[in-house]
Write a structure and sequence with these properties.
This protein is an alpha+beta fold and 242 residues long. It contains ten helices and eleven strands. Helix content is 46%, strand content 20%. Helix 2 (27-36) packs antiparallel against helix 4 (119-128), helix 6 (159-167) crosses helix 9 (217-225) and helix 7 (178-185) crosses helix 8 (189-201).
Length: 242
């Protein structure tokens, strides 16, 4: 992780605006926060931490988004989750609580600015400030449920199903790339591109450079919820191919 810099004067105010669980701290904790708070600024595409790194503190994102992923045996990346303003990194929580090293990596999707709480302050906040403790463990529980769902999807759902689900929920126009979608699915770019071409051929979406227009969300939803044969096989049978 990049060496943090001293926090600018407005950092505590911005931190409280994004993470209200830090409001109304007892005077001793408030003074320690002001004294020990550090800020890290990273450009898009840079690494926040690598697999096997030790955890240098508890990151709290002020702006931007961090992608947390795991490198698979074949070199592909599987995105586990994103962290944005107001959210916590459950992997960092786990590492700090268990005195363990990271078993995944964090990369900046955009320019990122984050506050870094040193471990002693993190420990004190958990022990002495219930709103912070409740917020940390609430997000930990929610993220754990999603990670279990991700493991189930990767293990038991076809790439096409997971791709259809990934395309939904962000409106009719998605600003993304085949490579980014592949990372989120833990699939190869070629596999994702083939499935997108099939979806486009079905009239469900239209592909542009860096953008995907969703034309028919209903069949995508049906595919995401289905357990039947692959959409590629169905499309080929409709076209009369064996």
């Amino acid at each position: 992780m990049k060496t943090p810099a001293d926090a600018p004067p407005d950092a505590p105010t911005r931190l409280l605006a994004v993470y209200p669980s830090l409001a109304d701290l007892p005077s001793g904790l408030h003074l320690e926060l002001l004294r020990s708070l550090a800020v890290v600024r990273l450009p898009a595409g840079s690494s926040l931490f690598h697999e096997s790194d030790s955890c240098g503190g508890f990151p709290m994102v002020l702006s931007g988004r961090v992608r947390i992923g795991r490198t698979l045996a074949d070199g592909r990346e599987l995105v586990l989750y994103d962290v944005g303003p107001g959210e916590t990194c459950v992997l960092s929580t786990s590492c700090l609580l268990g005195s363990a090293r990271y078993n995944a990596h964090g990369a900046c999707e955009t320019d990122v600015e984050l506050a870094l709480l040193p471990r002693p302050l993190f420990d004190r906040l958990l022990a002495e400030h219930p709103p912070f403790r409740n917020a940390v463990f609430s997000q930990f529980g929610e993220r754990l449920v999603r990670l279990v769902e991700l493991a189930e999807a990767v293990g038991f759902q076809r790439v096409e199903q997971r791709l259809a689900a990934a395309l939904l929920g962000s409106g009719r126009e998605l600003h993304t790339s085949h490579e980014k979608l592949a990372r989120r699915l833990g699939a190869s770019r070629e596999t994702v591109s083939r499935a997108l071409k099939v979806f486009e051929g079905n009239g469900w979406l239209r592909l542009h450079r860096g953008t995907i227009d969703i034309l028919q969300p209903q069949p995508l939803r049906a595919l995401a919820d289905a357990a039947g044969p692959s959409v590629t096989a169905v499309t080929e049978r409709r076209a009369g191919r064996p």
